[in-house]
Amino acid sequence: MSELFGPEGWSAIFLSLKVSLWATVVSVPLGIAMALLLARGRFPGRGLLNGLVHLPLVLPPVVTGYLLLVLFGRRGALGGWLEETFGIVLAFRWTGAALAAGIMGFPLVVRAIRLAIDAVDPGLEEAAATLGASRIRIFFTVTLPLILPGVLAGAVLGFAKAMGEFGATITFVSSIPGETRTIPSAIYGLLQVPGREPEVVRLVIASAVLALGALGLSEWLARRVRVR
Amino acid sequence: MSELFGPEGWSAIFLSLKVSLWATVVSVPLGIAMALLLARGRFPGRGLLNGLVHLPLVLPPVVTGYLLLVLFGRRGALGGWLEETFGIVLAFRWTGAALAAGIMGFPLVVRAIRLAIDAVDPGLEEAAATLGASRIRIFFTVTLPLILPGVLAGAVLGFAKAMGEFGATITFVSSIPGETRTIPSAIYGLLQVPGREPEVVRLVIASAVLALGALGLSEWLARRVRVR
Amino acid sequence: MIEIDFTRTLGDFTLSPTFTAPAGVTALFGPSGAGKTSVARAVAGLLKPDTGRITVGGRELFGPSINLPARKRRVGYVFQDARLFPHMAVLANLRYGGTRDEADVIEMLGLRPLLDRYPADLSGGERQRVALGRALMSGAELLILDEPLSALDAPRKAEILPWLERLRDVARVPILYISHDVSEVARLATTMVLMENGRVTRAGPTMEVLGDPDAVPLVGVRDAGALLFATVLAYDEADGLTTLTIDAGQLILPGRLGAPGDRVRLRVPAQDVILALERPQGLSALNILPVTITALTTGRGPGVAVGLAAGRDRLLARVTRRSADAMKLTQGQELFAVLKATAIATYDIGT
Amino acid sequence: MIEIDFTRTLGDFTLSPTFTAPAGVTALFGPSGAGKTSVARAVAGLLKPDTGRITVGGRELFGPSINLPARKRRVGYVFQDARLFPHMAVLANLRYGGTRDEADVIEMLGLRPLLDRYPADLSGGERQRVALGRALMSGAELLILDEPLSALDAPRKAEILPWLERLRDVARVPILYISHDVSEVARLATTMVLMENGRVTRAGPTMEVLGDPDAVPLVGVRDAGALLFATVLAYDEADGLTTLTIDAGQLILPGRLGAPGDRVRLRVPAQDVILALERPQGLSALNILPVTITALTTGRGPGVAVGLAAGRDRLLARVTRRSADAMKLTQGQELFAVLKATAIATYDIGT
Amino acid sequence: EPLTIFAAASLAGPLDEVAAERDDVAIAYAGSGAIARQIDQGAPADVVLLANTDWMDWLDGRGLVTEPRLLFSNRIVLVAPAGAGTVELTDEGLDVALGDGRLAIGLVESVPAGIYGKAALEGLGLWDEVSTRLAEAENVRAALALVARGEAPLGLVYATDAAAEPGVSVVADLPEDSHPQILYVGALIAGNDAPGAAEFLDAVASHPAFPDAGFLPVDE
Ligand SMILES: Nc1ncnc2c1ncn2[C@@H]1O[C@H](COP(=O)(O)OP(=O)(O)OP(=O)(O)O)[C@@H](O)[C@H]1O
Ligand SMILES: Nc1ncnc2c1ncn2[C@@H]1O[C@H](COP(=O)(O)OP(=O)(O)OP(=O)(O)O)[C@@H](O)[C@H]1O
Ligand code: MOO
Ligand SMILES: [Mg+2]
Ligand SMILES: [Mg+2]
């Protein structure tokens, strides 16, 4: 079994899983908040914020990676502050890979959730309000359960994107074995050398199996939570 | 004005627009069909098909690009057949760039539409059926108008993704000026040369403006078609 | 002609209705949750029976080897919830299934000022009127109306009912009608099907079911009453009264109820019939009929249901037990029934 | 005490209701599209008036400087469409706003077998019962009921109405009640507000509005009738009849209507009152009251609305013009009103 | 029909200058591996320029190119953010210069600059010291950017890139014999006798833009 991918392959697989899970776990709640803001909020600059969220989709990944480097590198505006204030280092760390993956997937997460929010019947939220529920309670007991299929869809899109993200990740945190060399980075490296195709194929399959497993899981969950 | 980007820059911008528009125009109807199949169909292999649609999201873009190259290259299994039978050449043509961009964005298009389909009240389709409407008519007069916001969301995601797609495109169709050098490929080329950063920045801005323009347009349209 | 005999389980609820109804209006009547809507859905092709058969007007809609899709059943269905298309204005909604009698339907339902509105901007009753209009305009071969008038005020109901009667009698469209309102049912229904707990407990001509003292508890005490067929004799322009003949004599009722010779039917609520041992004098009630007691049914409450024969017509009266005792009512006894003209007002008269 | 005076435009519809209602049940009555639901939404905080003031029990809910959010208004709202939470089972729906009187509410509404079901698996009437239960259990300080009983069968209504009466009288929860059914309104409502086209056309104590011959066209011919207050004298176990006194004499009605001394109110539909020049004998109708004609109103139809004074109580009768002529009815004339006991059945009696 | 050149991205600067002198040349830049596979799939190239002899051998072995020829060589240098002092090519020297930072380099298994860089570090006996402290980048320009941004205190890049990037200073030259020769190879596509292709290849080989950019002639 361990020979199937070799130690480097396994390390890339575990790392990809860790990075993608974290990227998903962090971006889903933020995505819900952002989707709510965009769907319900009425404030100046809403269009701009919407655009900003979509930007990683539009820009070539390398550019996004470079922007991340400029912002969150150790010499970057936010990176230095994060390190001094919270001791959080992103550059060349798996955390940075998770950040890159999360940001690249964020537009997908937000969109899926926003579509679900737009489909919620406001009458149900009205009913909850007349029953004395606070906004927070309405959100957690009515809105959130109703948008769960959308949240799940967003999560699986974010996870899949994180599993496949390459350009922004390698530009921002480079490719350090065991730290930031995710499956796509490993595959990219292998593809640059003649004759390593079999390893590429194995990693591709591993990646596909993991992501499609997540997809299957999300579909199953969605069926379970689907509004009756 | 023409000096802002130089002839090569303009050519990349027009090409990106052409490629992205075609990718969107073709993938939206296919995405609707696929979303319907996945949301409503009950057939063996549905899970697999779902996985296949999501694959381009999961795989590193370069891998997708190689797969496309192997399949649709002039020596590829499908590429040769397409060329002989229909005279369609994809490899190293802008059409191939559109194919790559379309395939990379397809999972996003399908997801957005599928979420919208799942939110359609089946009672309305029942009502249409009792009024004698055929499945086709129900689709075009009830289902489609009701999912339009989702279709628009899918279209804008697909378009934005197409504007930003790089890895699969350059791997499949290379970066031939005037034919396949889209904005991201042009940016990649410029990044290889010291001192071209100002041009990069201008192209990034152009790309962002175009995609965000499309985003704004779609939001405006969505508000207009929003179910009352 | 509607023939229904199927079973279908829904969770732990078993629906297994069996009845046959001739052309005309078939009313499904029964408590909330009895399965009325489910029967309607099965007829419309929206709920697939596990086994059985559904035939309408000789066309087999569902059977062992057939399951016609909803769109081919040519059923106009007014749903309990209106189900208007939210993305279409009222006019587009109305026209979706066809444009039969468009102008008339719009007029009758008072929809003219609403045509450009969207469903979200309509009131509850307005929505139901549009849904009704949409079904009426579809030119269906069977209409299913699931509580179509429950959100409407009395004057509006009074405008719509004659239209449904015309559909029944002139266009001869069979109608499956679900309602909790006996006066609606009595007015329209040819056949009455009482349902409870997924099964049919009583089915038959409306006159029989409503006039049957034994059906009083099924229909509800206050809703019991008999149906009479009458023939119009004359209409008096001056005082606005119509004189009708029934088997046992003459009735005088307010309003122009038809041209001489027309057959009309009247519902006489049991609680509006007063019994008198002798023909009373100087009463504002215009209608006094000699009757014979055919049945006396004592229920749990303080009332007694009294079946009456007026010639070949049957009437139902509800009196207190004390009155029954004081008057010494017995089967076969001959006495007088006093019917107050205004209690059998236009609302209960169907042509 | 509900005080309402605001305006709000909805498209080209202008809503500008003005009325004041004391504690108890305030009925909003009027044709479809009159603006009843919109008023209710404004009171509940779901529709913001353009200007004006809304006060309930002294609490200002909306005013020039205040707009209490819906959740702080403590309003239990039963919506015209049930609006159950689709992702919660019935029990969770019921408990969402609170658990006041949980067992009683579940019992009264017959919800016990439905508790584990999801809304999608409920019938129309079941849904409405759950929505009603949810509002009742929320411990609200004001209940808004928008046609809560329209999807229910008569026996079920008869079970629910006494509960609403108890809320009104014992728990003293003010209720805003929207219905098309005058008998419900008459039974429950302290105050009646007639609406048309966004404005209030008549508001006042239910007795006055319903007993007013001039209001007959507004209420609907068949729904007119008077309200009487009566005091229970005795209940006769043997024949199940209650004897009551009103100002003009005694009434005998079926059922146990209360303990001796209790005050009850009765609706006497105008069409169920028969006028007699002389006291009739040998009738199954047990109640005959001497009355004086106070008003004669002739409408467009063949009927005449006759206002009657029975002592200090007022009654309303509806007779045909022919009868009125034949009996030579005139204002001030003294004669007898015959009330059939079963026509004033339990359903119309409120405590 | 313009002449289509598929070229390794690291040749972009001077190659653009060559192309600018002609109006019928289109250049597609990509990584050497991608170019090789595309040629294999029938890419419409007339001339191919790679930074890696392995991929050229791979193409030659398949009979896809004719007349492969060596064009230039290059050098690997150690760079640091502009203004840094020289670094001694010893374990301690590197250790001090790196501090807790990383050495930026192309992917050492696959990107040509990375492969050469690794070979050089091995030749200098420094590999064990730094192999766990690398930041491997997608291509040599990305590695250079890491240094220029100050994210990595050191980087191993082509001398040509170092010369063109004002954000970095060369802090040590690597001895020529510490790594295999860095060779750029060009070839014509087999069976595709585009007029002017051979001439273009000649022009590239002799154009002054390359020496100006720091490319070295090949020692035969
Ligand atoms: N946005 C709008 N634009 C135009 N008209 C509107 C809008 N919203 C509501 N209306 C109109 O306001 C009127 C009042 O509606 P409301 O729902 O209050 O009526 P209602 O009295 O409750 O009627 P029903 O008994 O049928 O439920 C209706 O005629 C409705 O069409
Ligand atoms: N999936 C299900 N699981 C369990 N019970 C169900 C399911 N679907 C429907 N039912 C039950 O079937 C019964 C019949 O429902 P139906 O809607 O036909 O009633 P109805 O007679 O139309 O009632 P109403 O007058 O209240 O509209 C109800 O008791 C309902 O709760
Ligand atoms: O020629 Mo590269 O840019 O080192 O792959
Ligand atoms: Mg029903
Ligand atoms: Mg309403």
Automatic annotation (TrEMBL), chains A, B:
The keyword Glycoprotein does not apply. InterPro entries: MetI-like (IPR000515), MetI-like_sf (IPR035906), ModB_ABC (IPR011867). The chain crosses the membrane at residues 20-39, 51-72, 92-117, 138-160, 200-222. It is found in: Cell inner membrane; Cell membrane. The gene is modB. Residues 13-222 form the ABC transmembrane type-1 domain. Pfam families: BPD_transp_1. The keyword Membrane applies. Its main location: membrane. It is a multi-pass membrane protein. This is Molybdenum transport system permease. GO terms for cellular component: plasma membrane. It comes from Pelagovum pacificum. Belongs to the binding-protein-dependent transport system permease family. CysTW subfamily. GO terms for molecular function: molybdate ion transmembrane transporter activity. CDD domains: TM_PBP2 (cd06261). Keywords: Cell inner membrane, Cell membrane, Membrane, Molybdenum, Transmembrane, Transmembrane helix, Transport. SUPFAM superfamilies: MetI-like. Part of the binding-protein-dependent transport system for molybdenum; probably responsible for the translocation of the substrate across the membrane.
UniProtKB/TrEMBL annotation, chains C, D:
Keywords: ATP-binding, Cell inner membrane, Cell membrane, Membrane, Molybdenum, Nucleotide-binding, Translocase, Transport. PROSITE patterns: ABC_TRANSPORTER_1, ABC_TRANSPORTER_2, MOP. Residues 282-348 form the Mop domain. InterPro entries: AAA+_ATPase, ABC_transporter-like_ATP-bd, ABC_transporter-like_CS, Mo/tungstate-bd_C_term_dom, ModC_ABC_ATP-bd, Molybdenum_import_ModC, Mop_domain, P-loop_NTPase. The keyword Nucleotide-binding applies. One of its GO terms (molecular function) is ABC-type transporter activity. One of its GO terms (cellular component) is membrane. SMART domains: AAA. Residues 1-222 form the ABC transporter domain. It holds the Pfam family TOBE. It comes from the Bacteria. This is Molybdenum ABC transporter ATP-binding protein. The gene is modC.
